[in-house]
Amino acid sequence: MRPDSARAVLSFLYTGLMNAPRTARERARAELTKEILASARRQLGEVGAPGLSLRSVARELGMASSAVYRYFASRDELLTALLVESYGEIGDAAVEADRPGDAPEDRWLGVWRGVRDWSLRNRHEYALLFGTPVPGYAAPHITVETAGRMPLVLARIVADAKRDGRLRPLTGPECPPAAIDPAMLVLLEEGAFTVEETARLILAWNRLVGVIGYELHGHLANVTADDAAFFEYTARAEGASLGLAFD
Amino acid sequence: MRPDSARAVLSFLYTGLMNAPRTARERARAELTKEILASARRQLGEVGAPGLSLRSVARELGMASSAVYRYFASRDELLTALLVESYGEIGDAAVEADRPGDAPEDRWLGVWRGVRDWSLRNRHEYALLFGTPVPGYAAPHITVETAGRMPLVLARIVADAKRDGRLRPLTGPECPPAAIDPAMLVLLEEGAFTVEETARLILAWNRLVGVIGYELHGHLANVTADDAAFFEYTARAEGASLGLAFD
DNA sequence: CGCAACAGAGAGCACCGCTCACTAGAAGGA
DNA sequence: TCCTTCTAGTGAGCGGTGCTCTCTGTTGCG
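^ Those are the sequences you sent over. The predicted structure of the assembly is below.
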């Protein structure tokens, strides 16, 4: 067998979960993992995912590039870690923008604005999340919970509105139930939603991501004149299609 | 000054427009430009934009990698050429899927399906068009006409329906006129649309691109169970919001 | 015919991801 | 406490990339 073949496959995942590193080695490892991630995150913000290089991260930390591979088995894995981190942040942004006591319409607008603000401030991270999936690895089941936090905030608002009887009846064509994954109905607020409401929620989430992407990628140049105003309108229109009182 | 500094900046743009290359050199140049593009396109379809390399294109054509720079000044410029080509193709797909004699609702669904089919068959090209904009160059004003062909097909359908009085009055919140670029109102069917209709058209175009992107990038995994059915539903819902008779 | 423009070749630079052999030192059991 | 094992670090190296430069043969044209 090959000697010295210690790799670091997905080690960052449980490294992050370690609550109390006992030995000095473990503490050093946890610290360096964080430093690598921080440096990579900085560079991601500056040059974007395609420009991020493991070697330059290593240079910035004053270590040999090969040493980084003790912590992240590949560039893709490092990107995956940044992906998870960014999903967490955009979820946080959504949660923090929500004001659970307010009227559902105000909450809705607030969360949309919060997510847009985060995206404008972190466009390369946004591209990593919702642009072309570049990391060949992806670790789907690991990210799925984190990735779902942002849309769940939207769902919560609608669920609260529905509970309080503040949701108007939906109009428009009906979604065939077979189109939606049954697990989705359970996942979303434990069955508080009909198929139709679920479909509209999916579309609203898709719209939020999509319209921000259009703005960031320049597809709205020569199309809209005031991106913020158009975004606001989009938020209202999408909310209205879910039965919120926007018109 | 530097000797032998002949570059090929954007030469492919008018090379493509030359109708009758006179000299043998010009014919050879036009032919090789096409061959390079064809090889690059093939590789784009296989490995995607990040994996496409100028050197491997040169290898496939049996020439030195430096020779390719006589035709495309950089990798980005080659990607830009593929971008323009792909915009043309997705526009063609939309035009060909349209059946101008049919009812607007059928035309609408047909074009949506046509664009989705093209995207599923050309996912790397789709990613180049609507994913993270990787080519640092872009040449915006050159692509804007080509890029607009696909959404214009959607606009045409709605314009025809409006002319024939088959468009229901719109519901939902109103778009502030200042949000839309005035040039857009003129561009779209020469002023046939109100601000509100224009805004809805922009959103429909955004939806078409966005929902396909969600499907291609895996964001609908564990969310929808039948992507085709969900897409169909999305097309109807978006059409209905424009006043087409889908419900 | 002769000059200038041009298309190709090939070496080379700086960078990349990643692997390997090796070493200094920490961890932990006898 | 000693000794073994495991680990984190180094640096060289491989094959790849985009791109530049110099040089050469060929083509086009006055």
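The mean pLDDT of chain B is 91. Residues 4, 6, 25, 28-29, 32, 63-67, 70-71 of chain B lie near DNA strand C (CB under 10 Å from a C1').

Shout if you want it in another format.
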